[in-house]
Prior knowledge:
RNA polymerase II transcription regulatory region sequence-specific DNA binding; DNA-binding; flat; purine-rich negative regulatory element binding; Nuclear Transport Factor 2, Chain: A; single chain; alpha+beta; DNA-binding protein; 2 helices; 5-stranded antiparallel sheet; disordered N terminus; PUR-bd_fam
Amino acid sequence: MIFEKINIWIVEDNKDYERDEIFTKRVKAGKRTYFFDVKATRSNDYYLTITESKRKIKDDNFYYEKHKIFLYKEDFGKFVEALQEAVGHVKNDLMPDFDFSQFDAEPETTESTNENNNKFGEDLKWD
């Protein structure tokens, strides 16, 4: 499998950059996994990457389709406000009679890690 060989090379190539990842939150959601990663620049500035990873199958092999968003500190407030507004619109205006509380409990497959305890499940996020 060519893809697996490429992934291994990228992981090994990124060894020097492991110090840049400060915090990771993994959220499994059906066939998708979302990674919320706080990273540091060389000048100790921080930013967030949000990665959607979806496992797909092609020709009896699997691969991960990934989409990534980079979110910088100056945009955190605007991003959170827009996300809350959009979710509120769905909950309050589009689906006011739906009971969203069934989704409030944190699922067992959600995990948080920090630089001293990095754990990556089967959904590799390396680009």
